[in-house]
Amino acid sequence: MVTLLCWLCVAPAGAASEEPHAVVQRLNDALLHVMQNAARLRFRGRYDYLAPVLDRTFSFSEMARISTGQHWGRLGPERQSELVARFRQMSITTFAARFDGYSGERFELLGEEETVRGQVLVLSRIVKSSGETVPLNYVFAEIGGEWQAVDVYLQGTISELAIYRSEFVSVLSREGYDGLIRRIDEKVARLRG
């Protein structure tokens, strides 16, 4: 059962000092900044501005591990580290490419839902100048004493991590580790234009 929590509520005992909604608010502020300054910043500036914010927001190591499924344990520490670095680069590149202009959008935080697995779903949305809303929700887990996002639900219901997992596991099964790295590098190159 999922319990709806107001985003101002006190977190459960043992929770990290920065609440998930505060992490998303910091991310939203950074995204709005790069959108409003997209032309001046250009791609490289957006990437550089967002990188430290995204590093504090997401657990790229946990996301890379989940995305590779049963293959993760077979990769070994060196390949795991390389994959986490590539996953991080792909994720930051994706944000820098997606948030590349501004036409009056704003972000709204709608609240939090605590899940049965001890994770927290932060509900947010982008409100376009036309009034149209686009849900953008984040799943947080407490990792190493910090709340970090481990998934993004695009359109409110489409798990980006599930998409990556399906793609990564399929590529690893057919093309192996080198094939996956090649695919990630190709995606990064496409996004950079």
Write the topology of this structure.
Elements: E1 3-5, H1 20-36, H2 38-57, H3 60-68, H4 72-98, E2 106-114, E3 120-127, E4 133-143, E5 146-154, E6 158-159, H5 160-192
Antiparallel strand pairs: 1-2, 2-3, 3-4, 4-5, 5-6
State the helix count. Answer: 5
Number of strands: 6
Low-confidence stretches: 1-16
Q: Which sequence of strands runs across the widest sheet?
A: 1-2-3-4-5-6
Largest sheet: 6 strands, antiparallel
User: Mean pLDDT, as a whole number?
Assistant: 90
Terminal CA distance reads 44 Å
β-sheet strand percentage: 15-25%
Spell out the helices and strands N to C. EHHHHEEEEEH
Q: What coarse outline follows from CA principal-axis ratios? A: globular
Proportion of helical residues: 40-55%
Please state the structural category: alpha+beta
Radius of gyration using CA atoms only? 17 Å
Describe the structure.
- The chain is 55% helix and 22% strand.
- It has five helices and six strands.
- A six-stranded antiparallel sheet has the order 1-2-3-4-5-6.
- Residues 1-16 have low confidence and may be disordered.
